[in-house]
Structure formats: structure tokens, C-alpha cells
Amino acid sequence: GSRTMMMPRRIFPRSVTARLVASYSLLLLMLGGAFLGVTVVSFRYFTRQTLTDLVSMRNREIWTVAQEALGDPAKLSDLIERRFSPESQNRFIRLRVGEKVIYQSGDPAAGTFRASEVPWLNPGEGGASTRLTENLLLYSRSYYAPGMGTISLATGQPYHLARAVERRLLESLAIGLPLLLLVAALAGFLLMRRALMPLEVMIKAADDYTFNDPRRRLPMVHAEPRIAALGMALNRILERLDGACSHVSRFSADAAHELCTPLAIIRGELEQVTAGRLAPDEAARTLAGALEEMNRLGATVDKLIALSRLEGLP
Q1: CA-CA distance, 152 to 103, in Å (whole number)?
Q2: CA of 149: how far to CAs of 70, 128, 146, 155, in Å?
């Protein structure tokens, strides 16, 4: 019986703590996953947008420099090489009129891409378009040159650094977030244990409660408001139980006092009759007296029962 009584004290707080910590950890995991996804997507969008703005600005600068030498390929190449240094600066530049290429930069010194393998990108309806290849962010824009018609100018910038930073960011978050979640779950577990400790103390006190010490109450040491409210409600129940026990004790004492004297008289008279020491007329009078005491005893019992019912009313 005592082992069964002790089981709730050991299991109940831990199960509540485990459920709360599990829910808390699941919520943190969902928030961490959402944060990871939003961070990676935002970083990818930011880097691509920044690089796109960079190559589009360079595209306009190249057109400003190149439009004065479009009819002279040698001069055009010299202007672009001296002004933008595409090979040494790891850039890609290509100008074409229709299907004819009038300038294309060579392979970069860093070897991040091959210029001959860069795909052709036709400007869209808005006059510009962007394409992200495996190693290059390519931007193409169409311009109009008098006497030559529409000229397509494509500029590109390697994307490998942005991919490397994105990969490092993803790795850092993939390693750091689980560790952070583990620390947060451990801290949540300790906080839950501390918050539920008053409840465990009250459960232990309730297990140790006996009617030998009916005035003992559940302790209220550093309890949270709702736990304290539960403890106060349980203490009020114990107050009512204490009152009921006191009422039963008083009733038992009163009943014993009221019944002791009539029972002693009846016992003495019946012992005399049983012993055969009395004459028949005296035995009859003794039995009549015993019957009278029995009637009085029954009336006393009825009064005690009625009194117990009245005292038991709230």
C-alpha cells in the first residue's frame, strides 16, 4: 500500500516536466527551423540581388565606354581591357550585334569559369534579363546604337564566393542551432523542475498525512500563484476533514459517556437474575428495571443519532 502511495510522488512531477519540456523543445525546434530557412533564403536573395545590382551597374558603365568605339573592334577591345580588366578582375564581358560577337573577354586568371562555355542570354521584353549558372551570374541588356541597330551587352560575375559563404552560413546554423536548442531544452528542464518543486513537496506532504496529526497542513514554500491556489484549496479540504474528525471524536466520547451507566446497571441486574439469588418476584422486578434501563438506553441512542446529524450539517 505504501509503495502504491509513493508512485505518484515519483512519477507525476517528472511526467509533467517531461511533457512541458518536450512541448517547449518542439516549439523551439520549429522556430529554429523556420529561422534557419528564413535566414538562408534571405541571405541568398540578398547576395543575388546585390551581385545583380553590381553587374547591371557595370553593364551600363561598359556601354558608356564602349559606344564610342563600336565600329572599331581593336579600339573597343583596348578600351574595355584598360578600363575594366575582365581577365585579371575575374569578370565576363561580351558584346554582340545580332549573332555576331564584336567583343568577348577571355578566361579569367582565377580559372573560375571558361568564357567559351558561357551561354548566350537574350535580353527579355524589358530589355534586360538575369541568369544564374553554376559558377556565374550573367546579366544581359540590349542597347540601341545608331547605324548598327540593337546591341546586346552581357556582363557576368562569378558566384562561387557567395555560394561558399552561403554554405558556411548553412553549416554554422545547422551546427549551432541544435546546440542552442539542447542548451535551451536543458535550461527549460531545470526551470520546470524548479517551478514544480513546490508541487512535489506538497505531494510528499500529502503522502505523509495521517489522522494521528490531523492539524498538519500542506506547505506553501515559494509556490507559483496557481500551485499556491491548489495548495490552499487542498488545505481547506484538510480543514473540513479535521473538523469532521473532531466531530466524530466528540460524538464517540459523548456516546460512550451516555451509554456507560445504563449498560453497567443492566449488566448488574442481569447478573443477579442469572445467578438465581433472587426470589421470583424480585427477579421480575429486576427484569422490569432492566427493561426500563433498555428503553432509556434506546432513547439515549436515538438522541445521540439525532444530535450527530444536526452537528454534521454545514
Answers
A1: 11
A2: 11, 16, 6, 20
